[in-house]
Write a structure and sequence with these properties.
Layout: H1 11-17, H2 37-84, E1 96-98, E2 104-106, H3 110-136, H4 140-164, H5 173-189, H6 204-229, H7 234-262
Antiparallel strand pairs: 1-2
Helix pairs in contact: 3-4, 3-6, 4-5, 4-7, 5-7, 6-7
């Protein structure tokens, strides 16, 4: 071009190049013919930055959405667990309760009376075992005969409650009676012959054992009443009553043992 001194390219040559050379040619078919290569490169970089920025924002949004969804699910699971762990069901507000076998009976029924006595007896046995620890520390041979027997009886009372509630999937009371009678005879052999009535007094361990004995007798009376009134599962319930009868004898001898070895006050009427 004689006027500008620049090489003149046709429109075809510009299209073949693929981009604007930035020389301001008259035949430049590109819209951005007045921009330089650096300007075009800056524009491309800006677009790439915008794309990456949008990708980053979308990724952060998905991450936060996932965390919120996880927190909602965790909260729902916690609510479900809380609902399952409620101790009250309001099903007994009308004065009725449901047994393991499915029967719905009144809360003053003889079955509920017997189960309540057994529950109370288990608490009394734990109380007696706690207070028997001091005077048994120096008499190791009595430990397995008193404290261990009280703890074992607590476990068996859970099975007794299940039997009364209608679940008779296991009954080990018949096999335990022989062991309980042997332990009772061992304790009784170390005591003087009983000639008078025994008074519940002196040591707290003695009182705790007598209190457990009284509750055990009450539970036995209610279980025998259940045996005579109910026709179903008589054999299993009878074994529970016999066990309670023998356990009350054991508690009586254990109370005499505690009073004999550690009490300075007379516990028998002269």
């Amino acid at each position: 071009d004689p006027n500008s001194g620049l090489s003149v390219f046709t429109e075809y040559a510009h299209k073949a190049r693929g981009y604007c050379c930035g020389s301001g040619c008259r035949h430049c078919p590109y819209r951005d013919s007045q921009r330089t290569r650096a300007q075009l490169s800056t524009k491309r970089n800006f677009r790439e930055v915008c794309v990456w920025l949008m990708t980053f924002v979308v990724a952060i949004w998905h991450l936060l959405s996932g965390l919120v969804l996880f927190d909602r699910r965790k909260h729902k699971n916690a609510e479900r667990q809380h609902k399952k762990s409620k101790l009250y069901t309001r099903g007994g507000d009308a004065g009725y309760t449901r047994l393991l076998a499915g029967a719905r009976i009144a809360k003053y029924d003889v079955v509920v009376e017997a189960m309540g006595d057994i529950d109370e007896l288990s608490t009394k046995l734990g109380f007696a075992a706690f207070h028997c620890q001091p005077w048994l520390l120096r008499r190791g041979k009595w430990r397995s005969l008193v404290v261990d027997r009280l703890h074992t009886s607590q476990e068996m009372l859970l099975e007794a409650g299940a039997i009364l509630a209608g679940n008779v999937t296991g009954n080990r009371f018949a096999s335990t009676l022989a062991t309980l009678e042997t332990e009772l005879d061992t304790l009784d052999a170390a005591l003087p012959k009983l000639r008078n009535f025994v008074l519940p007094r002196a040591l707290i361990s003695t009182l705790a054992l007598h209190e457990a004995r009284v509750v055990c007798r009450r539970a036995e009376r209610h279980v025998w009443k259940l045996v005579h009134e109910e026709a179903s599962e008589v054999d299993a319930t009878t074994q529970v009553a016999i066990f309670l009868n023998r356990l009350s004898d054991f508690l009586f001898v254990a109370a005499r043992t505690a009073a004999h070895f550690h009490s300075r006050q007379p516990t028998e009427l002269s």
